[in-house]
Amino acid sequence: TERPIVFSGMQPSSDSLHLGNYLGALVNWVALQDEVDPIYCVVDLHAITVAQDPAALRESTRRTAAQYLAAGIDPERSTLFVQSHVPAHAELAWVLSTITGFGEASRMTQFKDKSAKQGADGATVGLFTYPVLMAADILLYDTSLVPVGDDQRQHLELTRDLAGRFNSRFGETFRIPEAYIPETSARIYDLQDPTSKMSKSAASDAGLVRVLDEPNATAKKFKSAVTDAEREIRYDRTAKPGVSNLLDIYAAVTGRGIPEIEAEYAGRGYGDLKKELAEVVVDRLAPIRARTFELLADPAELDRILALGADKAAERAEVKLAEVYERVGF
Ligand code: ADP
Ligand code: NA
């Protein structure tokens, strides 16, 4: 039986992925490789919907891909590639934009939020049509399942609507994808502000743990993590968000259950928890960090892997695009 096709992408993020990206997304991507036919994409076309520095984008695209590989994405089992290397994404996005209602696109709440921050002329048409490009990413590959967080749910609905609309207007062409919510999916919060999601766009660096940070920097960040005025190491998301976040990270990194970790720390202080958690995190990230730097030090090898991935992706995408072009009358 054929494995379900899963499409997922991450924007090339600044210098390094953070612990939320790793534990919340990448760990699942790696695990899925045994069960599905995964297509993992560094979505650099999406990244230029807000102003970019060209050299920084080029560097972070390579770094992001290197971290995927270092974390265990296997280019044999996964189709791993950079979005701009496969022209069919932009080409299908154009066709889909011609069946997207202007009003329909205007209802996307992420555009409203992001454009509000950019000011009247700061927001571009590219930012506006971002969800149409995302639809193209997904529909090109006959994707069945798309891992999505809450912020992307509305975009996936649009994707499903566009697929259905195209099919009914031009004939059965696209598979209608479903949202996929992994059974185990960690949500990691900022160490300094444990009610906010850990995010690269956080105002301060202090609560953001990066995969490529120096071990000392990581230890320091855990040491100064915000907790509370009690002493008890107990999981309570509402009353003790800081401690609960530390326990969640501990559980996600070690694969142990929260009650077991609470029991181990019964009668011990926050200092012990922070110190030992920093150690398990650093140990977990060390080989990923080392492998990432190894890959970045050998540009020819990384280029070779990404070129093979782009070939694999393009081969699939071009079949679908040719079908679409035929259907619309090209
Ligand atoms: P950021 O919020 O830093 O901008 P992205 O939005 O680019 O990160 O997310 C990339 C991937 O990482 C997505 O799959 C997202 O669900 C996941 N992710 C991001 N932050 C977290 C977090 N704090 N906890 C769990 N998963 C996260
Ligand atoms: Na984000």
Automatic annotation (TrEMBL):
Task: Give GO terms for biological process.
Answer: tryptophanyl-tRNA aminoacylation
Which positions does UniProt annotate for ATP binding? 11-13, 20-21, 149-151, 188, 197-201
Annotated Gene Ontology cellular components are: cytosol
The cross-references to Gene3D superfamilies, in alphabetical order and at most eight, read: HUPs, Tyrosyl-Transfer RNA Synthetase
The lineage's top-level taxon is: Bacteria
- Compartments, record wording: Cytoplasm
- List the catalytic activities from the record: tRNA(Trp) + L-tryptophan + ATP = L-tryptophyl-tRNA(Trp) + AMP + diphosphate + H(+)
Question: Which positions bind L-tryptophan?
Answer: 137
Note whether Ligase occurs among the keywords: yes
The EC number on file is 6.1.1.2
| Top-level EC class as recorded in UniProt | ligase
Molecular function (Gene Ontology), one example: tryptophan-tRNA ligase activity
Q: Does the record's keyword annotation contain Translocase?
A: no
Q: Which UniProt keywords apply?
A: Aminoacyl-tRNA synthetase, ATP-binding, Cytoplasm, Ligase, Nucleotide-binding, Protein biosynthesis
Motif 'KMSKS' region, which positions? 197-201
Tell me which family the UniProt entry assigns to this protein: Belongs to the class-I aminoacyl-tRNA synthetase family.
* Quaternary structure annotation from Swiss-Prot or TrEMBL: Homodimer.
User: Its biological function?
Assistant: Catalyzes the attachment of tryptophan to tRNA(Trp).
What is this protein's name?
Tryptophan--tRNA ligase
Gene symbol of the encoding locus: trpS
